[in-house]
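Hi R.,

Here's the chain you asked about this morning:
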Amino acid sequence: VKQSGVPLAKGTLITHCYKDLGFMDFICSLVTKSVKVFAESPGSSAQLRVLLAFYASTIVSALVAAEDVSDNIIAKLFPYIQKGLKSSLPDYRAATYMIICQISVKVTMEDTFVNSLASQIIKTLTKIPSLIKDGLSCLIVLLQRQQPESLGKKPFPHLCSVPDLITILHGISETYD
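And the predicted structure, written out as tokens:
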């Protein structure tokens, strides 16, 4: 690429991402490091938005393109998913929701893993009010695709504290199948 001066094809980048987990880890860790750096200088949110868009599109595309999403890929992504769910940055949280949805569609996960993920989504739903609908939509995709036996009782007080929960769920059910 460097010698020919031809831009790197997106497909090549995506293929490399799911075939080389070190490269996937590099992209994910680049995001977490950048979030820390940019948090200290608030005027650079546009640059961070570009990086987060690249992160979301690359990881989601890699998950779509991979014929078999292995446990190793999930294990590599899980710490970054946890960080994304805890982040107060809307773009980081939205990227994380997209990645969770794609994993939910592509892979059958163990109930304990699904329960842990669902609980984290529920507990952090109200932290970014503008993303409550997106978080609930992500939760719906996760639970409909994975169908765990039970979530237990712990997440429900958090879910019940979501403002306008019934209205949001009703809106989602009218708009989507």
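DSSP finds nine helices and no strands in the chain.

Let me know if you need anything else.
M.
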